[in-house]
Amino acid sequence: MNYAIVVPCYNEEAVLNETTGRLLEVMQRVAEKHVDLQGRIVYVDDGSRDGTWSLLGSLSKQHPQVMGLKLAHNAGHQHALWAGLEWAAAHVDAAISIDADLQDDVNVIPEMIDLFLGGKDIVYGVRRDRPTDTWFKRTTALAFYKLMSKLGGDIVYNHADYRLMSRRTLAALMTYGERNLFLRGMVRTLGFPQAMVYYDRAARFAGESKYPLRKMLAFAIDGITSFSVRPLRLISIVGLSFMLVALGVIVYGLAAWLCGRTIQGWTSLLVSLWFIGGALLVALGVIGEYVGKIYAEVKRRPRYFIEETTE
Ligand code: UDP
Ligand code: MG
Q1: Neighbouring residues of 210: CB distance < 8 A, sequence distance ≥ 6
Q2: Angle at 179 between CA 173 and CA 184, to 5 degrees
Q3: How far is residue 237's CA from residue 150's CA, in Å, rounded to a whole number?
Q4: Is residue 76 in contact with ligand 1, taking CB distance under 6 Å?
Q5: N-terminal to C-terminal alpha carbon distance within the chain
Q6: Bridge partners, residue 4, by sequence
Q7: 83, 118, 178, 216: which has the fewest C-beta neighbours closer than 10 Å?
Q8: Ligand minimally distant from the alpha carbon of residue 9
Q9: Atom of ligand 1 at shortest distance to CA of 216?
Q10: pLDDT 10s digits, 9-44
Q11: Is the pTM of this model over 0.85?
């Protein structure tokens, strides 16, 4: 049996030496416990612009367990991860996905593997707490999980993309055709025997976050719109209640006119004009989100291209 640790990297030259060392150390521990289990590290260079790829080249020469896939352009974290998982689905019995910065505790990998060998197909790594994240990141992330579950997307609270997947769940995942990837939600819809392991999340030990607020927001919107049509329904409900209010206003206006009272409602008219105009624009915007999604999906563009591998 064999397994792969899949690590997407975008401009991660500052962390890769350390990451490799720590992962190899954990793999050594796993190998001591399960002698017939072979591990590899698969780095996916997501079109980095720094020295990531040349570093991966030398790391793979130094350590036979390390290999690299180089994507032809920056496809984004989820697509890079998909590239690695697709490779894993074809080559190994289980894949563990983890970020390059090792904010997720590698010491639970043996536990994940034990659960896998015990028959679990998916093992979610779940953060106990976020003591090292900034207050802002913590609160926005929490708000996102809450909103997501309210809107009907089933995601594991405080689980990101640190998880183990067995070969058959990888194969199942690969049948999903969508281009807007939100892996933690997609994996949740697979079913199969599942388990969780808990750990404390550390701070990124070098380099900066590759997820600035702009990307985080885009990811959150993607997550919601790929997993729920409730925002669309919400628009209809809001629209309907506006029409009800408008009905009341019409009745009131007519009655006032019949009673011969002149209308002085310039202000209220202006206000409601703007308000309704705004509401319409928001509604159109939400619909546009979904139409945009459909547009991206019907093109069926490839998710990534592999430019080179270290093999
Ligand atoms: N990443 C990637 N492509 C991107 C952005 C990020 O492959 O376009 C990788 C990055 O190298 C890291 C992981 O995705 O391994 C998570 O990124 P990061 O740690 O910067 O995000 P954060 O932990 O701050 O949310
Ligand atoms: Mg990180």
Answers
A1: 10, 11, 77
A2: 50
A3: 16
A4: yes
A5: 21
A6: 40, 95
A7: 118
A8: 1
A9: 25
A10: 999 999 999 999 999 999 999 999 999 999 999 999
A11: no
* Helix residue ranges, H only, the chain: 16-33, 52-62, 77-91, 109-117, 135-150, 167-174, 183-188, 213-227, 230-258, 266-298
* Two tokens, residue 141: 């992330």
E strand intervals along 175-292: 194-199
Q: Pick the more confident residue, 50 or 258.
A: 50
The answer to whether 48 and 72 have CB atoms below 8 angstroms apart is no
> What gap in Å lies between CA 209 and CA 207, rounded to an integer?
7
Burial of 98 (0-12, 13-18, 19+ CB in 10 A): buried
User: Residues 181-193: what's their mean pLDDT?
Assistant: 92
Instruction: Tell me how far apart the alpha carbons of residues 65 and 73 are, in angstroms, rounded to a whole number.
Output: 25
| Ligand lying closest to the C-alpha of residue 45 | 1
Tell me the DSSP string of 218-231.
Answer: HHHHHHHHHH--HH
CA 82 centroid distance within chain: 11
Sheet with strand 94-97: strands edge to edge: 194-199, 122-127, 159-166, 94-97, 2-9, 38-45, 66-71, 306-309
CB-based contacts of 68: which residues, under 8 Å, 6+ apart? 42, 43, 44, 45, 53, 56, 57, 59, 60, 309, 310
Question: For position 23, what pLDDT does the model report?
Answer: 96
Beta bridge partners of 41: 5, 66
Report which protein residue has its CA nearest ligand 1's atom 1. Answer: 77
**What confidence tier does 116 reach under pLDDT thresholds 50, 70, 90?**
very high
Residue with token string 């609270």: 157
List the structure tokens of 243.
């029409």
Task: Please give the structure tokens belonging to residue 272.
Answer: 């409601």
